[in-house]
Design goal:
Layout (H helix, E strand, L loop, with lengths): L10 H11 L14 H20 L5 H4 L1 E2 L5 E2 L2 E3 L19 E3 L5 E6 L5 E3 H4 L26
Antiparallel strand pairs: 1-2, 3-4, 5-6
Helix pairs in contact: 1-2
Length: about 150
């Protein structure tokens, strides 16, 4: 069923995969990137996060969670972990006990640092923490402006 899971930051994102993708590539994590809509969807997700970070610069969701209707701080959660059933502490069958907290220090598998440990949201929060060897470096490309038309 497509019911709301309080605290799941992934659920609105996943719902787009299911509603837009239907039974096509978008609904399967292993094949979603073969669908052109995938890139439009993820560009929009990045845009929304950037707007959110601009509006709330002192608030980091990975560490702080969110406020529920009563004003109580709740931790973001994801049913069965970051990759669904694949990294769940408990296998499907009892979804409530399979809710995994998503925090700033939750490993971002499969992405590893040079030492072999996994990157976390806290590690990747500021680009100043990312080694320069991992950053994009623009390269000069020669351009021939003297094109000849025949």
């Amino acid at each position: 069923s497509l019911s709301w899971i309080p605290g799941s930051i992934e659920q609105p994102h996943n719902l787009i995969h299911l509603l837009v993708g239907g039974l096509g590539h978008m609904m399967d994590n292993d094949y979603a990137s073969f669908d052109p809509i995938f890139f439009l969807h993820h560009c929009n997700v990045d845009r929304i996060y950037a707007l959110w970070e601009q509006a709330y610069p002192k608030y980091f969701m990975g560490r702080d969670g969110y406020k529920d209707k009563t004003g109580t701080t709740q931790q973001f959660k994801q049913i069965w972990g970051k990759f669904g059933w694949k990294d769940a502490p408990n296998r499907p069958g009892n979804p409530v006990s399979s809710m995994v907290d998503l925090k700033g220090d939750t490993p971002l598998t499969p992405f590893r640092k040079a030492g072999g440990t996994y990157w976390t949201s806290d590690d990747a929060r500021w680009t100043s923490k990312i080694p320069k060897s991992r950053r994009f470096r623009p390269t000069a490309m020669p351009v021939d402006v003297n094109l000849q038309f025949s």
